[in-house]
Amino acid sequence: MKLPTKTWLAVTAAAGLALGGFSPAMAAGNAGPTEHTDMGVTGDAVMEHLQEISDISTSHSDEGFRALGTPGYEEAVEYVEQTLEATGAFDVERQAFEVENQTFGEVAVSVDGEELEVTPASYTEGTEEPLADLPVALPVDDDYSDLAGGQLGCAASDFDDSAEGALVLVARGTCSFGEKTQAATDAGAAAVILHNNDTSAPDETLNATLGERVENGAPTVGVSYNIGNDLLTKIEGAAEGEPLLADFTLETEYTTSTTWNVIAETKAGDHDNVQMFGAHLDGVPEGPGVNDNGSGSAALLASAEALAEQPTENDNAIRFGWWGAEEVGLVGSAHYVESLSESEVAKVKSYMNFDMIGSDNYIVGTLDSDGSDVPIPDGVEVPEGSAELEKVFTDYFDTQDQKNIGTEFSGRSDYQAFMLAGIPASGLFSGADGTKTEQEAEWFGGTVGEKHDTNYHQPTDTIENVSKESIDIFAPAIGYAVHTLGYDLSEAPEPTDPPTTPPTDPPTETPTDDPTEAPTDDPTEAPTDDPTEAPDERSLSIDPTTIAQDDFVGERGVQVAATGCTPETTATMTVDPQNGKIEKFEQTATADAESVAKFGVRGLDETLAADYVGTYDVTVDCDGGDPLTGSFEVVAEGDGPGAGDGGGDLPRTGNEALPLVISAGVLIVLGIAMTMGARRRRA
């Protein structure tokens, strides 16, 4: 678990500055929040969207679920678009691109007459005709028991002359599958078998992807650890000069498919300062892909809906991306970044990736962009600002007393293209085919020695096998990250003294009437009633109660103070306009140590001052007693008693007014905006 070096609020603010482009500028009267929140994003909200994605996938089980080029994927894209458009808060775009798709015919491999269970690698080349009597060879290595060294076949120099025209057996590990096939091809191999190195799942066939086609590459298949290890033993035991012989057939065809990314950007916010969040929407044809990666996709939808419901508009533009063709080589995200001009890339200040957050044997993992838990692999360039992004999560988890660990920051997911473009990146991950350690089991529960996701790329990746416990942990963390990067925190001013009671009339200069000569009544023998209790201290002050329209849209506005609220509790002000042009709205504030909760109300659009004319009913509900009620009236210039009198200063814009900023809520109806500034005092 990472230990914080500062309080979470301070660290979050520092991260915003480090990423660049986070400015304190605000819309007139639209002061932002004074602290970051998870926006109310819950595991239940994520599960609602995940159920929809699951239903779409399973309804297309005979057509490849949500894999590239399937009707299921297109229907999932439509669901994402409809959900976003229903919020009214986003500009939604479907970005089409073409992907080379691959189908397989006969795939058969036998060694020494024994048929092997193999899986063709994605993007492999095929055999023009069946290959017969191929010698079977190994890379050069001094210890084939350690699943390391030369047997990994990461370079052509890992092979000797025996690889020429042979079927070579290569272990998984260190470099990518595409690099292994390229190295074997360069060494003259006729075909390649990649064998799994996962001893915890020794019978699981390796599903490998080469990432892209290797020109004139050797046809490549994957096998399980047990099959690979048995074959290794037979090759080593073969008599010198009498190698094992193999037959190898791999029929494949490439076609071009059109698929899509879905991009959604908030209508609000600084569009030169874009904070981006992404998850891949496609799956593998072997299963419904509910955890991989329906879970990340559903979390983005829940976060987008929560963002759209916030009381104030975000300062920085938030852009969400649902990627296509991830499972065949990160194609969708790479295409998207490549489609951006240099100036558009410069506007993207950060990228957060969420690829699997509901693994059944889960870990709470952050992409370890600072290398503190998992060293950054050689050759991986980490953009400046990535470590600060990771701290958004680690500091949040610390406030929740939630242990978390760093996971490999290698670029082998959709954040890779953003890293290569120099954009800071991080994200969350609940685990895939990694094996749970004793330390992880102590921290997160689960089974030692089992995969983090025991259903990874399997038909059993269903909603029944998603961990709701994991979703409950990750969902609010993602919502918190969206809020953190979307909003600049406002300074909460110290509350002013509560309004004083107007002074009594001064004494008159002339004396009162002469005293009467008759004495007053004799005193009663019985005692009078008990003295009355002190008057109720709960009261509502509205200053002024009548205000001219021009003052209402100026700097005065109307100040509301509720007295008698329990200190350090939340008070809610509801303003109910009676003029039929403005909708009812509410705002919250924290009662101070003197039991006073303060608010401010003013109009934002000076050009529409006349539209604010009317009566406004005000209710403040807070702990300590019954709701407090009152009203004020906005009148046409010069009308009504007291027009233009009273009222305190309310928020301005820019640095000049920053000390005066009052936390506010925004309401826009028919182009008319109103703000309630809630003056808060941090606990």
TrEMBL record:
Record-annotated PA domain positions: 150-231
Gene3D superfamilies: 3.50.30.30, Zn peptidases (3.40.630.10)
SUPFAM superfamilies to which the protein is assigned, alphabetical: PA domain, Zn-dependent exopeptidases
Leader peptide range in chain numbering: 1-27
Region (Disordered): 489-553
All copies of domain Peptidase M28, residue ranges: 261-478
Regions of compositional bias (Acidic residues) in chain numbering: 511-534
Residues annotated as transmembrane: 657-678
Comp. bias intervals (Pro residues): 495-509
Cross-referenced Pfam families: PA (PF02225), Peptidase_M28 (PF04389)
Keywords: Membrane, Signal, Transmembrane, Transmembrane helix
Domain of life of the organism encoding this protein: Bacteria
Protein name in the entry: PA domain-containing protein
